[in-house]
Design brief:
With 244 residues, the protein is of the alpha/beta class. The protein has two domains: 121 residues, 3-Layer(aba) Sandwich (Rossmann fold); 100 residues, Orthogonal Bundle (Arc Repressor Mutant, subunit A), CATH 1.10.10.10. It has eight helices and 13 strands. The chain has a five-stranded parallel beta sheet with strand order 2-1-3-4-5, with helices on both faces. A five-stranded antiparallel beta sheet has the order 9-8-7-6-13, covered by helices on one side. Strands 10-12-11 form a three-stranded antiparallel beta sheet. A hairpin with a 3-residue loop joins strand 11 and strand 12. The protein is elongated and about 55 Å long.
Amino acid sequence: MSLDVISQPEAPRCIYVLDDDTDICRLVCTTLREFGFEALECHTAAALRRLLLLREPELCIVDLGLPDADGMDVVRELQARYACGVMVLTGRGYLSDRVMGLELGADDYVVKPFEPRELVARVRSILRRRADTRSTPTPTRSQRADFGGWRFLADSNLLTSPSGQEWTLSAGEARMLLLFLQRPNRILDREQLCGDRDLSALDRGVDVRVSRLRRKLESDPQSPKTIRTVYGAGYLLAAEVKWL
């Protein structure tokens, strides 16, 4: 007698929303729940940390203006200690804040006021990109990548030039370089590297990170030979990569 295997429905993906504005926090959580997510709200960094002790979510949405912490410090802490995605949601519209948030490793940056359905679309995009990244082979903490005389240590974000000069990359730079190293000699578009192509803030974040990597990797950043621009398509790491 054969038994039919009944597949269990997937558990809703868990998202923590950190915002001291209770109305906005409630709006974001309600919208996420309407689209099938499990959303938990918290209004202080301390409350978020208590939730993280109980369960790690797939994504944290973080407001920068918090009563008990600097939102940028919270983003930095999440990137250093947890594997979840990070979306910055804030009333700060300064380009410098957007770039800093992305440089710290945030996956997206949304400025208030926002359209709830657009926010859900961005959440889905983050989760999809992170799922795609997890599905590709990643180096273990003991491995390093050698390419064109350069060396990159994945566990410490340490980049070493052929002459021995060293840089400790930011979380955003290291994540982008790792993506390039995992897919050498392949074109990566903006969605793969950072965000959707139609999000101008993320496009700027991609360009900033590429520019910073080029200033380290290229002898002439204005005529790059390692990280090349493929116009209309994205960027490509032109190098043979060996993982040790």
